[in-house]
Structure to design on (417 residues):
C-alpha cells in the first residue's frame, strides 16, 4: 500500500493546553518517515501568516506542510540541504569553508584525505540516503547507514568506519556552528576492525622478482629501492639527485626527507620525519643513470612525462603487478594474499626483524610509533652500518643484487639533520 507523503502528529501543550501539530515527510528511498518537525516552527521559519494558517489546526498544519514540501525540506535549501549535498560541499577542496578555515589557521588537513572523503560520500553515502536532509539526521540514521554499508558492500570494517567519519565530521561542524540543534553523532559507535595482516612475499618470490627481466627499468629500480631501504612508494617517487649522498663512513646512502602525493605534490613523509638509509653502490649507480635521462630541470630520479612531476604511482604499481604474474602470482592470487607494491616494505621489515634491534629497525623503516614495527611482523622474529650489513646479508644476497659497497667516490657529500 502506498504511503501518504505527509503524516501529522497531534500533541497538547502542557503549558498552553492548545493542540500542537508536528509534520513528518515520507522518505521513499529510506522507506520511513523523517523526524517530526513542529508546524509552528516551520511556519515562523518560512514567514507564513500564522493567523491565516494557524499551526494549531490540522488545516493550517497541512498548508504549512505542503509549503514546506514544495520548498524541498522547509526552512530553505540553503539552511537545510540534503545530507549528501552538504557533505560533498564540506569536502570540496576548492570551495569548502571548513577547509579554507583550516588552511588559514595553519591547521593540518590533507588534500588527499579530503579527496578520499568526497569520493566516499559520492560513491557510498549518496546512493543510500538520497532523501535525508541535514536537520533530519538522527543517530539511528547513522547506525542504519553503517549496517547497510556492511551488508551491501565488500568494504572492510576500517573503510566503512572512514566512510561514516566522512559524514560525522561535517555533522559535528554543523552542530558547532549552530546549524543543528543537537549532535546526532555524539554517541556513535564504529565497527570493530578485524585487522588483517598485510600481504607479503616470500624470500624465494623476492629473489625471482629480480632474476627475471623487467619490462620497465624505472619499475625495477623502484621495487629494488623499496626492497633494500624499506621506503614507501611516495618517498621513492619524490627522490631527486641530491638525495643520493654519502653516509658518515663515506658509503652510498639515501636521504629520505619528502614524499610525493598525486593530489598535493611534494609533501613531508608520512611521519614527518627524515631518515638516512644505506644504499648499495650498484643501486646508487643505476639510480644516477636513470636520473641522467631526465630532460627537465626538476631532477626527479623517477621522472615522468610532465615537468615538475615524477612518474605516476599507477605506472609503478602496474609494472610491479606484471612482474608478479611472471613469477606465478596472478591477479586472483595477488588479491587473495593482499600483495601490493607496499608488500616490498613489509618484506624488508619482516626480514630484518631479529637481525637488527628494534630501535634501529624503527629508524630504518621510519616508524613513528614503536607498535608500528610489531604491526609488520610477518615472518621473522640485531645503527647505519648495522643496517647496511643486515640488508646486504639478508636481502640483497638473496635477490642477486651485487653487494658492492665501495666508497661513494664522486658522490655529493651530505649529512642528515
Amino acid at each position: 500500500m502506498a504511503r501518504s507523503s505527509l503524516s501529522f502528529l497531534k500533541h497538547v501543550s502542557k503549558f498552553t493546553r492548545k493542540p500542537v501539530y508536528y509534520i513528518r515527510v515520507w522518505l521513499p528511498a529510506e522507506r520511513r518517515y523523517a523526524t517530526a518537525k513542529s508546524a509552528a516552527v516551520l511556519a515562523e521559519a518560512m514567514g507564513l501568516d500564522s493567523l491565516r494558517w494557524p499551526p494549531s489546526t490540522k488545516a493550517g498544519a497541512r498548508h504549512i506542510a505542503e509549503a514546506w514540501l514544495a520548498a524541498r525540506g522547509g526552512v530553505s535549501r540553503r539552511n537545510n540541504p540534503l545530507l549528501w549535498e552538504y557533505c560533498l560541499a564540506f569536502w570540496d577542496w576548492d570551495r569548502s569553508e571548513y577547509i579554507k578555515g583550516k588552511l588559514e589557521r595553519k591547521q593540518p588537513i590533507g588534500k588527499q584525505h579530503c579527496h578520499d572523503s568526497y569520493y566516499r560520500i559520492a560513491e557510498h553515502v549518496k546512493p543510500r540516503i538520497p532523501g535525508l536532509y541535514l536537520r533530519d539526521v538522527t543517530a539511528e540514521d547513522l547506525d542504519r547507514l553503517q549496517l547497510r554499508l556492511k551488508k551491501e558492500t565488500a568494504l572492510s570494517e576500517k573503510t566503512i568506519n572512514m566512510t561514516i567519519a566522512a559524514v560525522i565530521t561535517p555533522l559535528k561542524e554543523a552542530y558547532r556552528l549552530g546549524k543543528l540543534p543537537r549532535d546526532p553523532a555524539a554517541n556513535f559507535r564504529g565497527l570493530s576492525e578485524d585487522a588483517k595482516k598485510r600481504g607479503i612475499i616470500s624470500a624465494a618470490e623476492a629473489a625471482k622478482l629480480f632474476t627475471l627481466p623487467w619490462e620497465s627499468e624505472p619499475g625495477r629500480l623502484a621495487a629494488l629501492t623499496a626492497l633494500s631501504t624499506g621506503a614507501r612508494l611516495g618517498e621513492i617517487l619524490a627522490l631527486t639527485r641530491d638525495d643520493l649522498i654519502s653516509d658518515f663512513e663515506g658509503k652510498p646512502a639515501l636521504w629520505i626527507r619528502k614524499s610525493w602525493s598525486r593530489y598535493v605534490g611534494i609533501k613531508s613523509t608520512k611521519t614527518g620525519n627524515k631518515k638516512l638509509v644505506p644504499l648499495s653502490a650498484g643501486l646508487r649507480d643505476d639510480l644516477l643513470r636513470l636520473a641522467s635521462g631526465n630532460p627537465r630541470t626538476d631532477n626527479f630520479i623517477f621522472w615522468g612525462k610532465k615537468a615538475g612531476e615524477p612518474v605516476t604511482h599507477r605506472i609503478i604499481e602496474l609494472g610491479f603487478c606484471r612482474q608478479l604474474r611472471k613469477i606465478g602470482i596472478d591477479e586472483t592470487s595477488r588479491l587473495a594474499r593482499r600483495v601490493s607494491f607496499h608488500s616490498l616494505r613489509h618484506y624488508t621489515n619482516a626480514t630484518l626483524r631479529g637481525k637488527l634491534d628494534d630501535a634501529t629497525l624503527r629508524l630504518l623503516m621510519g616508524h613513528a610509533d614503536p607498535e608500528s614495527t610489531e604491526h609488520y611482523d610477518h615472518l621473522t622474529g640485531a645503527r647505519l652500518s648495522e643496517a647496511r650489513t643486515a640488508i646486504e646479508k639478508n636481502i640483497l644476497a638473496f635477490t642477486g643484487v651485487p653487494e658492492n659497497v665501495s666508497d661513494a667516490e664522486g658522490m655529493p657529500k651530505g649529512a642528515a639533520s
